[in-house]
Amino acid sequence: MKKNLFYSILVGFVGLFSVGCGDEYLAYPPSNSITLEEFISTPEDAQAVLNSAYKALSHKDALGGNTQFLGELMADNISAARIQGDWLAHYTWTTDIFLGTTRNLMAQSFRVAGRANFLLDNMNLVTGLSEAEKTRMRGEALFLRAIPHFECVRFFGQPYGYTSGNTQSGIAIRTAWSKDLVNRSSVGEVYNQIIADLNEAITLLPESQDIYADKWAAKGYLAKVYFQMNDFQKAYDLANDVINNGGFSMEADLMKRFNTSASSETIFETVSVSLGDESNNGFRDNFRPDPSTGLAAAYMSNDMFVAATANPDDLRTQQWYVANTMGNIECTKFPITTYTHVPIVHLTEMKLIRAEAAAELGNTTTAFQDINDIRTRAGLGEVPAGTTTSDLITIIRNERRLELVGEGNRLHELKRQAVRNRPDLKIRGIAPWDCNGMVCQIPDNELRGNPDMEPNPTGGCQ
Amino acid sequence: MKHIYFHCCSLVFLLLFSSQVWAQKAVLRGTVTDNKNEPIPSVSVKATNTATNTTSSVLTDLDGVYEIGNLESGSYSVVFSFVGYQNTTKNISLSKGQNLELSIQLLEDNQVLGEVVVVGYGTQRKREIVGAVTKVDFKEVTPVVGSSFETGLQGQAAGVNITQNSGAAGAGSVVRIRGLSSIGSGGDPLYVIDGILVSPDYFRSGESFGANNNPLSFINPNDIESISVLKDASATAIYGARAANGVIIITTKRGKSGKPKFNFSTTVGLAKPTNIVQFLDTKDWIALRQEAWENDGGVGRVPLPGGFTHEQALATNTDWIGLVLQDGIKSDYNLSMSQGGKFLSSYVGLSYSNGESFLRNNSFQRISGRANLDFKFSENFSIGVSTSLARGLNRRVAEAWAGGLGTAQSTALPFYPIYIPNAAGQDSIFEDGNKRYYNLYGNPVAQAEYQRPRDIEWRTINNLKLTYKFLKGFEFIASGTYDQATYNNSTHEAAIWTGNRDIAKNYRTMSRNINTYTTLSYDWQLNKRNHFKFLIGQEYAQKGDETTGYEYAGLTDFIYLDPDADDDPAGIDTLVYNDTPQLINRWRYHSFPFARVNYDFDQKWYIQATYRRDASSNFGANKRFAYFPAVGVGYLMSEEPFLRDNKVINFLKLKASVGRTGNSEINTNAQWSTYFTQQSGDQNSYNGQPIQYPIQLGNPDIQWELVTTYDGGVEIGLLNDRITADVSFYQKRTTAAIIKTSVSASSGLNTLDFWQNVGVIDNKGIEASLTTHNIVGKFNWKTRINVAHNKNKVVSVGTATPDALDGGFGDTRAVPGYAINTNYLVTFVRVDPATGRPVYLDKDGNETFEYDVANARRAQKDPNPWLTGSINNSFEYKGFSLDAMFYFSLGGLIYDDAAKRQRAILSDWNTRCDIVDHWDQPGDEAMYPRLTANTLNWGLNGNIWQNNHTLWLEDASFVRLRTLTLAYNFKNKSKFFSNLRLAFVGNNLLTFTEYSGWDPEVARGRSNAQERNVGGSNVTYLVGPQEKSYNLRLSFDFN
């Protein structure tokens, strides 16, 4: 009897465990895990995601300094001294698929696009978002998505105009939040996507909003895109619109463009406001002396310095360069602080675009006016009235180099000039603008998950 | 039996009355026969006088006849022994001059066949096992003192490969059974300790200070009774989703019937490295650097790192490697008690061991206690209580990439002084009267003093087990276990090292495991020939790790030594960092049912079927339940009439099995999408506004890996088991293998990992063991041989490219068509005799000077050994025994990832002596290219690290005298004292290899599963050698 009782208890024990272990019990996530729906449910959540896209853009490896530095390093503004490691591979046009610099460029840039796409794809999960807010957020997301495409396509593909149909390989176009494999599109297709996104952003964005992207940011950025394409009419129209109607004004002080406070010529910038957030510290780290060694990571090239010192009256020469104790030239254009605002679109560049586009279009009056504004601020005389259009363009291009030094424009500008009318251009006099090494190798973090991803040809620029 | 006894007794009785032939001395003689009355030759007959304890022994002749003369009168214990037969003891008394005839019949020993082996949720006799199961009797095993028990398993079971990471104290091992069957999931076997499932946890994630912890070090090897290694599906499928990597069942000692009996043993040992690699001294280092300088077009003297002049440098020749080595002292004390009464049987074991390694300041100390109590309330009902508590203290030193011996062989150059020198070249004395270390962070002596890592682990496993037998043949078992590990990863850094205040860090993982299972079994003898055993059960297991971490400034010693630190953050100690406690690595399993049916027909045919259904939180929401069936057949051909009386073959069993098992050692984050949520701090905001973003995508379809195993085998016994052999063939196919797909960077995900069940992997192999009793008698010689061959091949990895499936540093990749851990490298051909430049193959296989990392890398040949195994010879003579085990691994490859700095382009690193074999002038055929400091001369792109090719891939075959034991068992015994044994045990005393690095046996203790699988055991980067040790061991029983 006793035995039977014990037996029944034990059988009950078995039975107890056999039931009631359903699915819910087995969903046992880490303690900090949340669902997608919990993650993005309120307008504040959506705004925080959008903020994170800006944050990603301000990161050192995106437009916080390093991407701009690559554009200088692979051109002719930087000296070989002090360049080592991954930077040296860029300097010598021998990038390979395992470089930290290109991995970071690809990954960090596209985090901007990824977060923008995440917001675009999941905005429907947010409750309480007004139509106006939706429109604004869409506009900002499209604008933010266009930027990494433009920055990366210029490093990982031959420039726009390299082939007549722009069929050369560009980068993967990312317009959805997805892990799906996407192969490279042609450079032409990438530019089409960038233009479409920016045009749509222009229609959606507000007239003005503090440091965040507004209509003028998108128009100004699109002007840069068209200018890179040597599409002078569209570049002119957009730059003209921004200059005339945007309400921006030139800073008299040359040190104001890169600063820890806002500048009147900034059309769009990323911000980094305190020592707790040093996301934009690439400029400081690359150009200013390292406190531990007293040496800068990069010195300016002799070629650059000769161009800069051609006129002793040039205020830029006086304010932007200093020779260190060893006689090397350091660039002091960027603040010594580790945090700074970084202008992505600014009035000086709009003026340079309008000047050259106007000259190309035969509107020399505007061209003279714009370039003289820039020269006057730099303490130089005006361009003589009788200068030929061709000489005028040369002068404008030289001013562009001097004004935008360190801002990452030089490599792309040389390639643009080569496409436009300098087919024999050799960078630093040795490397053809269209050699294999002038295009960065697609990094392994883009190649390894996708066997169909086409790598760039190797062989450097020998 | 009864009547044989009667027969013998009557014989003795009869003889006692026979006439006395010898006047003084007695004679004992007789014939030994088997149960068929055939005489047995070479039977050992020992007659021991119970009063004087003197022994006389002889062997029977070809007719089975023996005779022992010259015996004093008195009482004797006569022992008859022969392999394959039961030992038989007869007690007789001899009177003066008596001539006694004592003939006996020996019974065949079925103990070998009847040997009980622990299997999943029960035991089986060896005879009825249909799968591949190896039992290791732990008495025959000698783990290295201060090491974990698995070091003693090396070479004991065919197909079980165990590589200790290095000779550092507390080092873990890579244990692989029948090859690698997984890429992205854990490859370690499942450990079952007394029925409790334990998974190895690598708590020291990120391998801080260069190596991982050993998750098994809490087990006191002296508490282990036996170990069963389950290899095929019929044996392992009862463990379902966690069994695919094989199962190692550890059974601890329990009380044996009888009065309390104590055992004490102690060991003292000396530890040394197996090998010391030679590096250049100052003079040669500078000479070669100068040669490279001139080759590169340099004029004058080569500038030296650190700003030394050549004269200053030549005045110093620091032996950095010598400075980090020591003679390690090992000691070990064990006390155990075993007792078995009517109500209570108990085993209690206590141990203390402290093993220093050959690395200065490095030791592992374990204190452990275990109590296994069995209460027997009635014939039917018993309760077992088992509890163990162990504390491991690992005084660590930085290793490999993190410093210590790693630094001593890399950046600590021979002309760097230990202390900052003054102008006269002597050690500077600073204002405070002290010396200061030169090159603080690159100085391994300074590092050992100022940066001290230490691990403290507590582990307790507590089990309550009820056994209830009822009706006829039914047995019910209910078991509940609480298992808790507290692991502290502690560091103390002195102010001089941090540049500010002393910093003490402690990162703690508290892991809690709960396991309960119930089984019901029924043993049913249907009739004389048909016998069934049924088992059905269910099991629940859950685990979770709670991690915390904090760092204090101002503490002068480790946090764990200052218990007030937690409570007194406002005092002189300042809390500088506090990690939010997190619950991670959590899972739950529920398994219902698991079942096993055994059927045997006539003790000749054995059939076993098992099944398990597992549900686990480790599986994605869309894949909750997994099913694992297996079936096996054993056929004892030797039971057939045509073999029963065979003179040669006394045992022959054929067996075959097929079944499925799973691997669910899945990254617990695999199924969950993760997000960065809003946090405070400027670094977590943009323009002062909060940010949040998605980090990683989870896969709700993630599931267990499925391994289908086919196994066939033969067990044979010849000449009454003088020779036994066991051969198995197997084929394992992993499908739904988890691949950590790399999402493209352009997706914008923060973490590019996405786990998918898309891979297919094959392992095929053969294992054989052979035991021969070469000489039996007074002098015994036994040989045991284990060999295994395994061929591993990745069949498919979905869309992943080789670079997506890497093994961390060292360029190993899982590539379809090749082994999982294949080296994926540019092929180095030779040094060009004309120019001294390295010649590589380009992407088309043509020779080139250019190193094309994007296109010319290829999967190289199989890095796994084609044959591994051991040969163990044991000799016994009187009280002496000698046991020598050679362990070998043939055809394996090791990639030396540090070679690019130690024997390639000269840089600010130490250089290995063998670089003297370099190209000097046209026509030279040299091992190494022309000396240079310029990467471009090697065809590289300027990055000294991007120099991976087959010149650094080396054959790592070796034969090693793993253990040598010379022991003497003292015969003397008293009422209180017995079994005194004194032994010398040597580990790794001899190594035969052509491998040029530290040690051909090397593993990097990675915590990341993929890195462990793909690059864990055939790549080295500054990892040190194994340990060679000399030990003396004393043990005895007392009561």
What does it look like?
The complex is a heterodimer of chains A (462) and B (1039). Chain A has one domain (41-276, 339-447): Alpha Horseshoe (Serine Threonine Protein Phosphatase 5, Tetratricopeptide repeat), CATH 1.25.40.390. Helix content of chain A is 50%, strand content 6%. Chain A contains 19 helices and 8 strands. In chain A, the strands form 4 sheets. A two-stranded antiparallel sheet of chain A has the order 1-2. Chain A has a two-stranded antiparallel ribbon with strand order 3-6. In chain A, helix 8 packs antiparallel against helix 9 (187-204) and helix 11 (232-245) crosses helix 15. The longest helix of chain A is centred in the first third of the chain and has 26 residues, at 131-156. The N and C termini of chain A lie far apart (96 Å). With 1039 residues, chain B is mostly beta strands. Among the domains of chain B are: 2-109, Immunoglobulins (Immunoglobulin-like, Sandwich); 114-129 and 136-143 and 152-252, Ferric Hydroxamate Uptake Protein, Chain A, domain 1 (Beta Complex), CATH 2.170.130; 272-321 and 902-1038, no CATH class; 667-693, no CATH class. Chain B contains 12 helices and 53 strands. Chain B is globular. The model of chain B is unreliable at 1-23 (pLDDT under 50). The interface between A and B is large, with 88 and 76 residues.
